Amino acid sequence: MPDRKARLIEAPAPESRWRSRARLAGALVVRMAFDALVLDCAYETWMSPSPIRVGVIVATALYFGLTLWVLSQGGRIGGPGWLTDPATPLVLLLGFMVAATWSPAGATGGLAMVRQPTAVILAGATLLVTVLALYRLAGPPGVHAWWARGGVVIVGVYSAAGLALAIRARTPYVALLAGDSLWRGLPVVLRGAWLGALVIPMVGFAREVATSMSTLTFRGLFRWMVIFALASWMAINGGSL
Prior knowledge:
Elements: H1 2-10, H2 14-46, H3 53-72, H4 88-100, H5 104-109, H6 118-138, H7 146-169, H8 173-177, H9 192-215, H10 222-240
Helix pairs in contact: 2-3, 2-4, 4-10, 6-7, 6-9, 6-10, 7-9, 9-10
């Protein structure tokens, strides 16, 4: 009788099993979507006169080769391990963008993806990271004070709007960081795209580091540190050209 009660206590509740399956399904969808973008980026960049196209192809081949090996050894997407993390292909894409922004030629024609020019790709990635940082800062994992959350949301929406307008206008990435963004009447450091490219990812990175120091763990935080660090690095490269 006690053993039966123990089994009932240890057995996961139906809601927990449902959440676990939903989380796994979400991880698979995210991973497949970003993997498709990696493949498309590798193909289109290789077919373009990009100065980094060989590096993109080699890194893509290594990524998929190592991923297949990990899966053949029993790994699963969403499970433990860096290569099985759903965000890994996003990290790889951001790495491509960091490499592209090392030179003026790369920042203007270093990458091609979904039939879009480099300017749109870099601004689009910056917009995505801005939204992710906004979620981490103002969402459930972030600040709890209503006034702090409201301030973060206002700055984040303003930054996202500046980046969205830049994507629509296909503004070159270097010009975007030089101040060609919403609102031009303000100092460069207060314009939307500049805040979204530099300030918000850096604040997001600092928040993840502070959380890891207070909780004494990197679990669930390290991927965000890497994403925000790469986005900041890309913006620093672009701003220095």
